[in-house]
């Protein structure tokens, strides 16, 4: 198939080939086309994935059953304590509720939750039709908070209000609402909050351990393995470190405004980014001791990884990678990570990357690499084949696509099997790559 | 984790916890994927389409394509007519399907979009089709949506020319491609020509060919859907799933239908095969008699290991009833039988089965959820769970072995390729039940009780 016949004219601006037309300007951060088989999700999805990892929260989805069903225990975010977040709560709106309004049912649902359990915080997600049928979710939440004496936070997340990024913002607003209920407390010097790690496969724990080894105290983890109590202390931290920039930069900015907490972007994927991030944190805190310890830690871990990388270069060097992930920050780290083991990235795309992400991506990749925003399966297929990628990194919808193309796959999303963050993550990353790329099954399909 | 489920049961009228159903559109999407060169289209927000595709992909481990109208704030205020128009043009231009099957969502239904009228206003190229159905998420469940989409295809496409052909219509319930293959195999064994709508075999269990095809070779052909209007009879397999589409065809084209349970277990499969034999006037071939005999032979050999054991079964109504029938035939006690899909007919049918086999103390409930089931189990446990993946949390909390059967299965492989229907499907389910119970016995027994020969 020719690229011309495959690509909608309206989509051309969203796809860019480095070196093909001089200046870099990819269209991004816009709505998907009507009719496109996009891999993108909605506002509710964005809000839910950000808040879901709060382990002792009750997440009540106000709407028909679907939105609650599809997000029941899907994220792979681990907990060191409470497990309530892994249950699915919903008002399961029926036709009668849609006709007569769902406020009463929401109130009942909140009463039923608090009658039997003792939640620390309840998040109420307003889905697509809630506003349309005229429910005043804020008012119900306010009344419930007064009656039950716990934070009941509305999350305004109608799916149609934009794509996932808007949902991230709504989740951040909800977090700010929760934080606004915290009593004033003095700052704790040399301490940080970790923003935008969701403890998939236990990644938050890895990062926290590194920081503790450096003598840096972690006040609140937002939101991987977080508890309500912990979040309430977030205002006391001296610095916010933002891992998933796409979802959490907005919260960092709001916390800076409201609480005077400065923030820095970090990434814990790959040796280069993990190392830089640890040093950057120490420097931002002005903590020389922490920086020294960070350098020791990095030296030790990097040394330990040398044989692994050496072997990986033998097994994987020269292979070509395609990347299709949610946010820009992850794509950037992945390009570097592939470089560390001698692999070249030939296709790179994101669902919700921003212009500044695409600028960095363009500066990292070689001439000829295809960069795409909000791609659909047909586009992914076309460029994966054209660029002869050996492996695709993506999420659940991309996995079967890769396999159907006879291309290896690595899950860098909710269904990742092992932690991919930090130095141990590098080990898992190359191990999973090797398992997939070098599986004997490929010899039967090619 | 679900150990946090309290044993004491309190009344819930508003709160749904751990559902045993999902919403209509995903069922419609599944049905539409069972039509050859069809693009399912979700008329609503971006997320609906994304979730449904993800959900189907997680169950079938295959790409599930669909497009979306990608509603924005504007569409939700002014209606989604122009979104749909643009979408249909884009889809035909770029993805080149032969047919687009539009289903609605809670949003487009609530704002009152008249999708049928939108479609009538479109200029659609000769030989291409756009069909639709209404799938408000706040009515019924994914099972309702599945039936509605099939009815939508029939409503738009099927025609009665007055000249009957001899092909039998089959409307399978909400089952796996593996089941659809098995139903077709039985029809072939009976030498009966047929049209099956939908048919997801060859689509969602397509083989690896080293390339991605948006439209795999399987799926019901449009010409065949049109020809369904000239069929002598429709067999609707799944009493609580397939009546609406069968009825739509009767209303539109005068094709009589016979409503049957999903052919699961001995009795229900007998019923299906007798209906086929009555239709064709052919004797039942030895091959099928042999399979039936094998199934009964297996049950005789192994009955001490399952007879009298109690089971909780959860999932979609017709599948749950089918499994209930089989376990009753095996002499097991289906102590709790639930579905999340609303409708009292389910409870009545389950009660009929209980009385037919003379079991007492069993509970059946529609519009239930897994939290409630877990509470019942906490108060009075069972020996085995049968249902989809979501039961694994109960299984772990209560240390009850789980047989995965039904939808969705998100944490295992191969299931979608294999049948649960027919005598062969029953053999497979019996094997799974036996292996699960016997593995549990081996794992839990004292060293001195470990038996080699069982």
UniProtKB/TrEMBL annotation, chain A:
BP GO annotations: protein-containing complex assembly
TM annotation in the entry: none
Pathway listed: Cofactor biosynthesis; Fe-Mo cofactor biosynthesis
Which residue ranges does the record assign to the Nitrogenase/oxidoreductase component domain? Answer: 42-433
Pfam name, any one: Oxidored_nitro
Q: Does the keyword Coiled coil apply?
A: no
* Molecular function GO terms recorded: nitrogenase activity
Which UniProt key words apply to this protein? Nitrogen fixation
Q: Which family does it belong to?
A: Belongs to the NifD/NifK/NifE/NifN family.
PANTHER family according to UniProt: NITROGENASE IRON-MOLYBDENUM COFACTOR BIOSYNTHESIS PROTEIN NIFE
Entry function: This protein may play a role in the biosynthesis of the prosthetic group of nitrogenase (FeMo cofactor).
Name the UniProt record assigns to this protein: Nitrogenase iron-molybdenum cofactor biosynthesis protein NifE
The species is Thermoclostridium caenicola
């Amino acid at each position: 198939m020719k690229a011309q016949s495959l690509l909608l004219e309206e989509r051309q601006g969203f796809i860019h080939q480095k070196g093909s037309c001089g200046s870099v300007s990819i269209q991004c951060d816009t709505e998907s086309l009507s009719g496109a088989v996009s891999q993108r999700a909605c506002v509710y999805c964005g809000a839910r994935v950000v808040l879901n990892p709060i382990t002792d929260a009750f997440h009540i989805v106000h709407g028909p059953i679907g939105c609650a069903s599809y997000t029941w225990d899907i994220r792979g975010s681990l907990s060191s304590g409470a497990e309530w977040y892994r249950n699915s709560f919903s008002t399961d709106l029926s036709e009668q509720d849609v006709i007569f309004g769902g406020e009463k049912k929401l109130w009942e649902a909140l009463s039923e939750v608090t009658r039997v359990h003792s939640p620390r915080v309840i998040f109420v997600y307003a889905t697509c039709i809630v506003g349309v049928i005229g429910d005043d979710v804020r008012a119900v939440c306010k009344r419930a908070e007064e009656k039950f004496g716990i934070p009941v936070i509305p999350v305004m997340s109608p799916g149609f209000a934009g794509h996932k990024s808007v949902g991230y913002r709504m989740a951040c607003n909800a977090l700010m609402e929760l934080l606004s209920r915290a009593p004033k407390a003095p700052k704790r010097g040399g301490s940080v909050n970790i923003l935008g790690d969701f403890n998939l496969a236990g990644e938050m724990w890895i990062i926290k351990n590194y920081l503790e080894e450096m003598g840096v105290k972690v006040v609140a983890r937002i939101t991987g393995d977080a508890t309500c109590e912990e979040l309430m202390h977030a205002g006391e931290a001296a610095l916010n470190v933002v891992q998933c920039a796409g979802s959490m930069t907005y919260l960092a900015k709001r916390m800076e405004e409201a609480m005077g907490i400065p923030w820095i972007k970090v990434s814990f994927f790959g040796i280069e980014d993990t190392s830089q991030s640890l040093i950057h944190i120490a420097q931002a805190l002005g903590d020389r001791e922490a920086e020294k310890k960070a350098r020791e830690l990095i030296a030790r871990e990097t040394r330990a990884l040398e044989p692994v990388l050496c072997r990986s270069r033998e097994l994987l060097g020269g292979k070509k990678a395609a990347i299709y992930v949610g946010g820009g920050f992850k794509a950037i780290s992945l390009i570097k990570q592939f470089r560390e083991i001698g692999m070249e990235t030939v296709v790179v795309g994101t669902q919700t990357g921003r212009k500044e992400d695409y600028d960095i991506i363009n500066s990292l990749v070689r001439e000829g690499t295809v960069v795409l925003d909000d791609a659909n399966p047909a586009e992914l297929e076309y460029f994966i084949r054209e660029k002869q990628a050996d492996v695709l990194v993506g999420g659940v919808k991309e996995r079967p696509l890769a396999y159907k193309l006879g291309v290896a796959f690595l899950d860098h999303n909710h269904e990742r099997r092992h932690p991919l963050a930090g130095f141990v993550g590098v080990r898992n990353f190359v191990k999973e790559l090797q398992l997939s790329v070098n599986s004997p099954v490929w010899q039967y399909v090619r | 984790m679900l150990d946090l489920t309290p044993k004491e049961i309190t009344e819930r009228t508003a709160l749904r916890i751990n559902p045993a159903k999902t919403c209509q559109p995903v069922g419609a999407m599944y049905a539409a994927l069972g039509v050859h060169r069809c693009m399912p289209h979700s008329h609503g927000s971006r997320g609906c389409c994304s979730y449904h595709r993800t959900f189907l992909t997680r169950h079938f481990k295959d790409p599930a394509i669909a497009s979306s109208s990608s509603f924005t704030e504007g569409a939700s205020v002014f209606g989604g007519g122009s979104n749909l128009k643009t979408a249909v043009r884009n889809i035909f231009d770029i993805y080149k399907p032969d047919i687009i099957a539009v289903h609605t969502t809670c949003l487009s239904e609530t704002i009152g979009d008249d999708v049928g009228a939108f479609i009538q206003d479109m200029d659609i190229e000769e030989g291409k089709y756009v069909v639709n159905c209404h799938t408000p998420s706040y009515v019924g469940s994914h099972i309702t949506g599945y039936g509605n989409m099939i009815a939508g295809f029939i409503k738009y496409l099927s025609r009665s020319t007055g000249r009957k052909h001899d092909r039998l219509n089959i409307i399978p319930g909400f089952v796996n491609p593996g089941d659809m293959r098995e139903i077709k195999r039985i029809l072939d064994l009976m030498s009966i020509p047929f049209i099956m709508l939908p048919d997801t075999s060859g689509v969602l269990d397509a083989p690896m060919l080293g390339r991605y095809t948006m439209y795999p070779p399987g799926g019901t052909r449009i010409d065949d859907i049109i020809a369904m209007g000239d069929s002598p009879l429709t067999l609707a397999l799944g009493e609580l799933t397939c009546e609406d589409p069968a009825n739509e065809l009767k209303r539109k084209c005068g094709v009589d239908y016979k409503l049957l349970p999903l052919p699961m277990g001995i009795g229900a499969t007998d019923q299906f095969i007798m209906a086929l034999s009555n239709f064709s006037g052919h004797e039942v071939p030895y091959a099928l008699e042999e399979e039936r005999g094998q199934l009964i032979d297996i049950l005789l050999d192994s009955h001490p290991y399952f007879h009298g054991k109690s089971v909780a079964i959860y999932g979609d109504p017709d599948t749950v009833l089918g499994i209930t029938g089989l376990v009753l035939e095996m002499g097991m006690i289906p102590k709790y039988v639930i579905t999340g899909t609303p409708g009292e007919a389910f409870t009545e049918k389950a009660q009929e089965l209980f009385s037919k086999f003379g079991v007492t103390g069993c509970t059946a409930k529609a519009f239930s959820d897994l939290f409630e089931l877990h509470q019942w189990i906490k108060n009075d446990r069972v020996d085995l769970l049968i249902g989809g993946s979501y039961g694994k949390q109960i299984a772990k909390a209560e240390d009850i072995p789980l047989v995965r059967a039904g939808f969705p299965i998100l944490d295992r492989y191969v299931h979608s390729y294999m049948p649960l229907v027919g005598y062969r499907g029953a053999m497979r389910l019996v094997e799974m039940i036996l292996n699960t119970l016997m593995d549990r016995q081996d794992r839990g027994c004292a060293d001195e009780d470990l038996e080699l020969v069982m």
